[in-house]
Automatic annotation (TrEMBL):
HAMAP family referenced in this protein's UniProt entry, alphabetically: Ribosomal_eL20
Organism in which the protein naturally occurs: Pristionchus pacificus (Parasitic nematode worm)
Biological process, per Gene Ontology: cytoplasmic translation
InterPro entries on file: Ribosomal_eL20, Ribosomal_eL20_eukaryotes
GO molecular function per UniProt: structural constituent of ribosome
Origin: domain of life: Eukaryota
UniProt name for this protein: Ribosomal protein
GO cellular component: cytosolic large ribosomal subunit
Amino acid sequence: MPTRAKGEVLHEYIVIGLLTEKEPVTPIYKMQTFASNAVIAKSRFWYFISMLRRLKKANGEILECKESVLLNLRTSFPVNDTDSLDNSYGSAEGIHGRFQSSADVENDYFPL
């Protein structure tokens, strides 16, 4: 079963749900999943929770479903003062690599 259509971007969602019972103390389940939208993220939550615990959608409720912003911070590229080129190729003698970098002469730490 595909979780996204062709060409859609996956986002990271955090889904929190619990079992609605008459008991005062019920466990809260938290799951981190990748989906194309919030509806699919909730559906995946119920799918995996029903496999792990005896919990159905009819007997539980979703407390929160939010998109994680931490993923965007982790995957953003760091600001780098050097431009580099990394090239590797294979030949009859083996695999060869070349790394070439050029640094900026003037930067904030060492002004000229």
